[in-house]
Amino acid sequence: MMRYKDIQQLPDIQFKRLTGITWSTFDVMLTELKLHLHVKGRPCKLDLRDQLLLCLNYWREYRTLFHVGITYGVSKATASRIVRHVEDCLIKSNLFDLNKKIPKGTGFDWNVVIVDATEIPIQRPKKAKAEL
Question: What pLDDT, on a 0 to 100 scale, did the predictor assign at position 82?
């Protein structure tokens, strides 16, 4: 499992390679999440730092929620709830934004979608005939 206690000693360069953000950005995100703590209901199995790491891991590696949940010792549903909660809190803060570099000008039709659905034959070994 990749928990906060296991990676807290990583230098900034390695932490950024692992999560996609720096320690300072992690601290800002964590401060923002602390403003939206759930006080009712059953406490989460993961502390807030591990919840943020789970979400960053999900975004960074594009793994399924099932796999991320297994890594952190929670179910797929719990991982989904954590990701949704972290995303909602960070979006509401208006502190974080994706860099959108969309070309502007004429000649771009953004209503077109291209899907590659080419079929590729799979090469399989031929079955050996059974000897009688």
Answer: 92
